[in-house]
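Pinned message: reference record for NmrA-like domain-containing protein
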Amino acid sequence: MSFTPSRLLIFGATGAIGKYITEAILAAKPTFSHVSIFTSNNTVQTKPELLARWKAAGVPLSVLVGDITNAEDVANAYKVEKPDTVISALGRGALTIQTKLVELAEASESVKWLFPSEYGTDIEHNAKSPNEKPHQNKLALRKYIRENISEEKLKITYLVTGPYFDMWVNAKANPKMGAFEPASKQAYVIDDGEGRVGFCTMPDVGKFLVAALRHPEQSFGKALKVQSFVVTPNQVLAEYEKQTGGDKWQVTHVPLKELEELETRAWAEGAGNATGFTLRRIWAEGGTLYEKNDNELIGVGPNDTDSLATAVGRALAKN
Ligand SMILES: NC(=O)c1ccc[n+]([C@@H]2O[C@H](COP(=O)([O-])OP(=O)(O)OC[C@H]3O[C@@H](n4cnc5c(N)ncnc54)[C@H](OP(=O)(O)O)[C@@H]3O)[C@@H](O)[C@H]2O)c1
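Predicted structure (tokens):
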């Protein structure tokens, strides 16, 4: 099928990663003829400046207010806006709702392509993946799509980005997950800090999504694995030291075994940061490493993504 996405509808557009995705789409101006955002009344009330700025960005933009859990609201959005491509960036609390969004997209007259909310860890990486707790809702959606959605009617693409570098360096919940603290020049790294991790910066997630939109044939039916850079925690530390005057930082090595124990305890106690512990353990175990990523497949070259130096500079500027 020869297809060029033109009318986009975004769910979760103003969320943590949705914001970067929407900004990148709006910055790609002439590429898309129309962009619609389906959002809650709460977001309209709490983020008016952001929505006003986007409306002034020069791309025809509709903001639809509705309830994501109400099938009628969603079906109506598809009917009125006639998107050919739907991008979901819904948060973890809304992942299961996506089964309905997908079902309605397949039944709609206009939607040809849909990106479910992923933008994270490769949930089908190895033999342990099917049992990882944080993966369950995303795995269930992939299963539902495999078993129920006709590829002829609706193309699906999952954008698999690995951890966001911007969040990874700043483990607010517990520094033992791995953290870099410029104010006290302290770092926490897992084991000897030599385990490589593949990252995306949050602005690059938006860039990769737009690159995928520009390469439909290459993206249809795939879980695209994209990365800004692959580095070790020790390389990250060296970059922080370089950009903070050259002094050596104080380093705490957290054994992987200790991270696993913290993870087990967090799940047993029903702690809010349990998901974070599991994902950090997966990343430390090599869960973001591939023989080859898909950057090139969607036309993203080595100089098109943020470098480690840029990402650390940005993180320092935020502190
Ligand atoms: N790779 C990483 O390091 C990483 C880190 C964080 C998240 N992620 C992934 O990125 C995706 C998006 O997560 P996020 O953190 O960006 O999302 P988020 O900010 O928590 O939420 C995004 C939007 O989803 C909508 N939403 C509606 N009902 C919701 C509900 N019950 N719970 C949560 N959100 C609801 C809201 O938008 P409206 O008000 O407009 O409806 C909200 O602004 C997820 O798949 C997540 O797993 C990856």
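Pinned by admin. Summary line: The chain has a mean pLDDT of 96.
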